[in-house]
Design brief:
The structure holds two protein chains of two kinds. By secondary structure, chain A is of the alpha/beta class. Chain A has one domain. Chain A contains seven helices and seven strands; from the N terminus they run ααβαββαββααβαβ. In chain A, α2 crosses α6 and α5 runs parallel beside α7. Chain B has two domains: about 375 residues, Rossmann fold, CATH 3.40.50; about 40 residues, no CATH class. Chain B is about 40% helix and about 15% strand. Chain B contains 14 helices and 16 strands. A six-stranded mixed beta sheet of chain B has the order 6-13-14-3-15-16, with helices on both faces. In chain B, strands 2-1-4-5 form a four-stranded antiparallel beta sheet. A four-stranded antiparallel beta sheet of chain B has the order 9-10-11-12. In chain B, a hairpin with a 7-residue loop joins β15 and β16. The two termini of chain B are about 35 Å apart. Classes of the chains: A alpha/beta, B alpha/beta. The interface between A and B is large, with 39 and 37 residues.
Amino acid sequence: MNTARRQTEKSRQQAQKSEFYAAAEAAGLSPAKGKSAVKGQYQAGITCRADWTFTDSVDVDLAYTAAEPGSVRWDYGLGLNAGPLGELAVWVEPHPASGAREVAKVIAKLDWLEAKLALAKYKGLRALTDKAAAAGVRRFHWLAMTGGMRIRPGSKEAALLNSRGLHLPRRYLEL
Amino acid sequence: MTDTPPLPTAPKARQKRKPRPDVLRLEHVGPIQSAELRFGDLTVIVGPQATGKSIFLQTLKLVLDRDSIHDTFKHHSVAFNGDSDAFLGGYYGKGMAAAWKEGRSKLSWNAKALTLPQLAKRSKAKQQDESLFFVPAQRVMSLRDGVTQNFGQFNYGDPYTLRYFSDAVHDLLQNEFGAKGNLFPQLNRLNDTLRKPITDHVFGGSTLAVDANDFTKRLVLQIPGHKEGLPFLAWSAGQREFTPLLLGLYWLCPAGKMSKRAGIDWVVIEEPEMGLHPQGIATVLLLVLELLRRGYKVVLSTHSPVVLDLVWALQEFKQLCGTEADIRALFELPNNDYAKGLGKVVLKKDCRVYFFDRDQTVRDISGLDPGAENAAESEWGGLTGFASRTGETIADLVDRQALKPRKKRKHAASATEVISA
């Protein structure tokens, strides 16, 4: 393949929407390239392994601010091109871990997100999320980059998180 | 309310100056590769078996109480005739002289270089009182069949710390308590705020008594409604372990107006949690706070995350401007003057935690940050490592089950349940 053809192919691929992008649009969300939907302060805390890339991302919290001002909303969804596993969706909630009470808030956010993923218009995002689970990639992540970390392994709060498929909050995520 | 001795006060000029922490450094001594500990008011050491924790603590005792130890051996007619290996075997335990490797091992106390062979000989000082009281891990051996043992009832090669502790408990029972029938509860020993959790969580309403029948003072538990006292070997493991510890605490917390045992500044307690349910461990930790209140520097070795829970709480309370009320809430203490005073004092104490790992330099993990990048700190020297793995394995399994029908995941908590809990 010569250089001109390679560039054309690359442009064509770039012009193609990722599965995550298409699924997010179908859900009525506004996807953004790579991790760019994630606030700048959190982007450095979310990385992926060297042979994977972020395709697109959504700020679900922002998307529902006007429609559901009183609800406890999850923050971000990210599309991942996971090499031979194909494209997957994972969900990240940057949230302080300053005390045991934050666990209840994050679980409430997860309930909210799971209710959204159960909607018909989220079918595509749900499929990508289920694909992550099937591939052994954790779907939901709690990021607590700064501040106190006051949830200790073995505690009642840790057990509540684990029973919902969540690990304890992490300072940095490598997906 | 009884027996709440006044807190020790220091001259004003001394109160202003924050003293430098004492530092003990060991290199290539037994299994210890390199350890430098800066002692706080409360210092906790953790680590797997055979990583040198006990050697380190015994060395602290030897450094501080060298002459007192030599005098005690002499008092009991144990002579080493200048043979340092024999002394080290008699002090640490038979065969332990090999822990010191000439030319390789190093030891210093507050930057002053020392050697174990040097400490194996008495200094030229006239007399030196003991300054560290050591409650050893083998303390249950001090009460064989519920009968206290004196120094001479042990053999050469049994650790000095066990022999001396046992002798102190023996002396306490034979002399200070004399003919008193009940050892616990004792109205003039420990504040009733401390006695209640001991009754509730360790003795379960029984009283600890001395049975002097058969011309031998034997400890028994008197159970309400029972005619005869329960013999030592019929007690629970936790009660057997706790009782010598309680007697040691009686020794350290004299009756009356004295807040401390004269001359004693340091207390080492090895594995205070032995045999106890977490409620019992919390009770022992409350007694540790009492030692801190009385002005002792306390050093603990432990395999229990409950002990580090206390240090974590104290660190966080200080950082978050917690008050004595938070200490009372932690230990479920009543709102009385004693408990308030205890809380106020312990919030001012400096706490440190060190991790002894195999073939590694000892690490300062005092932050105990569960989010720390360093697993030694985030997993509290391995004490919460298994709990972490358990939780993560369950979380991963829950995640994998996500694709299965929802009815199979009925046990997962919903936010509604959590919030209303």
